[in-house]
Amino acid sequence: MSNPSILILPGDGIGPEVMAEVRKVIDWFGAKRDLAFDVSEDLVGGAAYDKHGVPLADETMAKAQEVDAVLLGAVGGPKYDVLDFSVKPERGLLRLRKEMDLFANLRPAQCFDALADFSSLKKDIVAGLDIMIVRELTSGIYFGEPRGIFEEGNERVGINTQRYTESEIERAARAAFELAMKRNKKLCSMEKANVMESGILWREVVTRVGQDYPEVELSHMYADNGAMQLVRAPKQFDVIVTDNLFGDILSDCAAMLTGSLGMLPSASLGAPMANGRPKAMYEPVHGSAPDIAGQGKANPIACILSFAMALRYSFDQGDEATRLETAIEKVLADGVRTADLMGPDDGTPVSTSEMGDKIIEAL
Amino acid sequence: MSNPSILILPGDGIGPEVMAEVRKVIDWFGAKRDLAFDVSEDLVGGAAYDKHGVPLADETMAKAQEVDAVLLGAVGGPKYDVLDFSVKPERGLLRLRKEMDLFANLRPAQCFDALADFSSLKKDIVAGLDIMIVRELTSGIYFGEPRGIFEEGNERVGINTQRYTESEIERAARAAFELAMKRNKKLCSMEKANVMESGILWREVVTRVGQDYPEVELSHMYADNGAMQLVRAPKQFDVIVTDNLFGDILSDCAAMLTGSLGMLPSASLGAPMANGRPKAMYEPVHGSAPDIAGQGKANPIACILSFAMALRYSFDQGDEATRLETAIEKVLADGVRTADLMGPDDGTPVSTSEMGDKIIEAL
Ligand SMILES: CC(C)[C@H](C(=O)O)[C@@H](O)C(=O)O
Ligand SMILES: CC(C)[C@H](C(=O)O)[C@@H](O)C(=O)O
Q1: Where is this site: Important for catalysis (chains A, B) (predicted)?
Q2: Which residues line ligand 2 (CB under 6 A)?
Q3: pTM score of the predicted model
Q4: Where in chain B is the domain with CATH 3.40.718.10?
Q5: Cβ–Cβ contact B208 with A under 8 A
Q6: From the CA atom positions of chain B, what is the Rg in Å?
């Protein structure tokens, strides 16, 4: 049997630097744990635009469809701000999500004990925080038609369409209930059913799916109140499920609560492929951080933890994922810190590659 | 000349209780400061539904169009959750906003010194915080067509439409720039121009309006990053301008940062009327809080500060507004607290009406 395959798309900004550390980790698992992967690498985002004039080449898209898992670094940078909407770096990412049909975006917001002080929130509010946000990722206002800027009378109008079918809501909800079953069996669904009909349908379908999960305690919250409650008392949540746009904002809000932005991974999962594995892409929650790119300052942990999620969700290697996560916790407990994890008076930070090396050592 | 007119719509939940305290304050200004108002009162939300079968009667709508300012308490409650979308309490509020064409919703997020400890954020992150969020209030996905739940093949689809014309963006932007000119001359506009064409048009129009305000330092931020930055370092902002839906979420997030939710007022302003005053409605940021309604526990300050905003923005009585705000600060500095402003071991809270009385005393 051939090895499972991984396509690495480092992308822009700090993407290539942090991905180099992930490769070390992948190699370690091949050499020491008999878990070899066939790894290939390609371009996405601005890097792809520079070479091909598009943020994702068709051949790259085809490769992504064939592999067992995609690992993505980050896309975007000021250099590309002037580009036309249709070829902006983000379109490459959105094309991957859409064409691979990665409908369930899992975004853990976890506060690492060693880092709780980095949160802007009081320590007791966030210490031990462990939320999972499930964001619908292939529909809603990100992809709905009609969309565009049109002439109307003697002015222009900008239009986007929020659009959710029952089956789109259902599969995202099901993914969230399944996760809740493996966690603390609490699910909160967020929408604006008080002002949007798409939110009414969302609430109705989530409620119906909930009948298949009687053990899960289901609640509903308006998304604006959701933002408030995340700030006020985030530990009230276990799993949250919400649509593409609310998920974008609420998951970023939740990520920032932890103070551990450079530490947060994500998984985007689709339907099972012929081999039983889900279509899957893994990426850190942080962006391309152009201000520190190329300086060896970036924290590779979010990207390495994204590979841990791949071990768990794509390759059924939960124990190996835990091994990797534990190694990272150990390194942090030892006081090893990249610059983003330090206060001004906390001594000398390690570089991106030193952090990678320390994690390999701990493994 | 007749007195300026105010229509009071207490609404549901704690609305009537907090509004009773506002009436005391209005009466005080009439008796002591020679500022008499013609005050009338009517129903909105669930209270209107109970009497008329609709959340806002046509006669009430007509009255709201005629008065100089509307003061609204809060709408909604679990009793009305089962109602059809078209007659839910929220529809009364949305009808007022839309038909009065109140396009600029001003939501200050201010952290009161005496209350900084109540924030879930660290004190140094929020102490002295003073942001103004300008939310577009009459367009976007709240009102765009097509909208509804439709049959499609053998399932249903929920649709809402985000829709912004150049002139709608322009007038909201102008209101925000005008405010920035009176404050610290910094404006941050938030959208998702990286994924939504309506966001591209938004950014373009705001930038163009900015040419009329060369003194204002204008920046743009994606709304998801905006949520992060609000949590990370809210004091970086002065005025924020954003659309109806992002404004709903981001302003609630900002409000919760302050720890002073029971203290935050808002103003919703439209075009000038024949008498030069803007169409205007004032309401607290908090909701109807059905869990504590009728118990005399609610904090009336947000609603009283909404009247202070009315003094400032509708009646050109900035000095009297400041007088009222100063009285409230004094009462807080004296340690007078409603239950929401106290920890479990902080002694005995005052009731809603005692808080009102203390403010009158301080005046
Ligand atoms: C880069 C951008 C297109 C993307 C989004 O809006 O989904 C990002 O913010 C995210 O959350 O992954
Ligand atoms: C009550 C509701 C319709 C309203 C809104 O969504 O605008 C509220 O959340 C607000 O922010 O004023």
Answers
A1: 142, 192
A2: A 194-195, 224; B 90, 93-94, 248
A3: 0.96
A4: 1-109+261-363, 130-257
A5: no
A6: 20
